[in-house]
Design a protein that fits this description.
Layout: H1 5-8, H2 10-29, H3 40-65, H4 73-100, H5 110-122, H6 140-164, H7 169-188, E1 200-201, H8 213-239, H9 241-252, H10 254-259, H11 264-290, E2 292-293, H12 300-313, H13 318-336, E3 343-344, E4 349-350, H14 352-370, H15 374-383, H16 404-408
Antiparallel strand pairs: 1-2, 3-4
Helix pairs in contact: 2-8, 3-8, 3-11, 3-12, 3-13, 4-5, 4-6, 4-11, 6-11, 8-11, 12-13, 12-14, 12-15, 13-14, 13-15
Length: about 400
């Protein structure tokens, strides 16, 4: 009798329980609903960290399990932020304009209100007309659809063109990085329709909501925790069973999986598109908590950082990706936010805000050389977990690669 999904993946239940306990603890210690032991700014930091954990899961799914080293997934993260940011900025500006014109001697027409909103939003780039891409900015429902559709369609088209040409390895990584760079350069232009280098700001203010930022920050933390839990559950389900065996087989020996009759390109395209959508949802939750988004957020370096987080946490382990993203995010906040004391050597003063990236790079090199399985691998050793028993001839050259019998299950 085949066991249930949860029985075969007990780590999922453990993760969801820990996530629920964390969310409850933060709620009771917050300024909005608890004892005030955690400031609102730190609640926002925790909420953003949960969003980064979600995109790390997406990165681990596409890289750690399917073997596609994408250096462009933060572009999808940023697109999700831009899509929801358009509605947030439009609705907030509309409320301000309508309020300012409420006492006008002659009631303004709908077109005059629209023109005033356009001037407020695009005056910074010398324009007052709404670009075509803002056609649905007044509808929350449609913009939420675009959060999923725009990144998903971009990933689908890009993946179809790349995978059907059988571009693999470092060449595929370069292509994903080129896509991200092209998108960032386009967004930097003032005529892109997204305010160029100024980006979208004031996203932390929810239109029509009179609640304080203390309460709103907790709402977003709850939403981010729910999205992370569902994302983890979905990713764990995807990598389990026969489908998970196939994508791991693609990672270990793509040519042999193709020889066995599987549509390698179809599997890769599905994973690439799915993870792009997950990344976009994470971005749509992240940037309202950050309050602002600009083209620098989708620069190629951000996607490289994402790969570093997953590598530090442990590639090929969903919980490792979460650990890596949470660890780097919180430690980065501590070092760059002034929490770490500067060190005065007399002849030189070490400022951690300047040296943090160097420390991150050294950490990545250290983990790669001394603990290639990442922090997640260390947790496995402490918990006494061992790699599954293998049967048959290996399907790939890597240690612990998929075996023939497992590919048939």
């Amino acid at each position: 009798m085949r066991s249930s999904f949860i029985a075969r993946n007990p780590s999922v239940l453990i993760f969801l329980a820990l996530l629920a306990l964390f969310t409850i603890a933060v709620t009771f210690m917050s300024e909005a609903f608890g004892a005030g032991l955690i400031s609102t700014s730190f609640v926002k930091t925790l909420g953003k960290t949960l969003c980064l954990c979600l995109i790390a899961i997406a990165m681990d799914l596409v890289w750690g399990y399917c073997g596609i080293l994408s250096l462009g997934h933060f572009a999808f993260f940023g697109l999700g932020g831009y899509m929801i940011g358009m509605w947030l900025m439009y609705a907030r500006t509309e409320a301000i304009v309508v309020s300012s014109l409420a006492n006008a001697p002659i009631p303004p027409t709908a077109q005059e209100i629209t023109d005033a909103i356009g001037t407020q939003i695009f005056g910074v780039v010398g324009s007052s007309e709404f670009p075509a891409i803002w056609a649905f900015a007044d509808s929350l429902f449609l913009q939420l659809l675009l959060v999923v559709m725009v990144p998903g369609l971009l990933a689908l088209v890009f993946g179809w063109l790349a995978f059907r040409s059988r571009v693999t390895g470092v060449y595929l990584s370069i292509l994903t990085q080129a896509m991200t760079l092209a998108l960032a350069l386009y967004l930097f232009q003032n005529d892109s329709g997204l305010r160029g280098n100024n980006g979208l700001s004031g996203l932390q203010n929810l239109p029509g909501v009179s609640a304080s930022q203390d309460t709103v920050s907790m709402w977003f933390l709850w939403g981010s925790a729910a999205a992370l839990g569902l994302g983890y559950l979905l990713a764990a389900w995807v990598v389990s069973g026969k489908f998970g065996s196939v994508i791991r087989g693609i990672r270990d020996d793509e040519a042999r999986v193709r020889f066995l009759g599987y549509s390698v390109e179809g599997y890769k395209l599905f994973i690439f598109t799915l993870t792009a959508i997950i990344a976009a949802i994470a971005g749509a939750l992240y940037y309202p908590q950050a309050g602002i988004i600009n083209p620098a957020e989708v620069a190629p370096i951000a996607s490289i950082y994402l790969a570093v987080w997953v590598a530090i946490g442990g590639r090929g382990r969903l919980y490792g990706a979460v650990i890596g993203a949470a660890f780097v995010s919180l430690v980065s906040t501590w070092f760059t936010g002034g929490g770490a004391p500067d060190i005065n050597l007399g002849f030189y003063k070490i400022l951690w805000t300047d040296w943090w990236l160097v420390l991150l790079g050294l950490s990545f090199v250290t983990v790669t050389l001394l603990a290639p399985q990442g922090i997640g691998g260390l947790f496995d050793r402490l918990a006494g977990l061992r790699t599954p028993r293998r049967h048959g001839a290996p399907l790939g050259p890597d240690k612990g690669s998929l075996q023939e019998k497992e590919a048939q299950e």
